[in-house]
Amino acid sequence: MIGYVTLGTNDLPRAAAFYDALVGAMGGKRFMESDRFIAWATSPTAAGLGLTYPFNGQPATVGNGVMVALEAGSPAEVDRLYAKAIELGATDDGKPGERFPGFYAAYFRDLDGHKLNFFWMAQPE
What is d(CA 16, CA 19) in angstroms, rounded to the nearest whole number? Predict the structure, then answer.
């Protein structure tokens, strides 16, 4: 259902380096870019993640209660990607673990303070 998510930044080169490495660890890469915007995806038909300077020229701020959830293929992949985010300078906002039966997730904040998570959900039988 989600086509893409865009996050605001006040330092595009710094944020881009973070997401180049983090999305690269997920098998993705840049697929669209300008001097104000960069987008990444794992394939041309997959949902993507974008970074931009705000169009209105005001400083980027973090949305309270807003979170971007990035799907992982297994609990081990959640652990690996969370560790990568922390290694790249993200801050912990909830260590990896099972939150509900069959739902495993880890929460972090990127360099601009946006809240994201990696999650794995067991498939119903």
Answer: 5
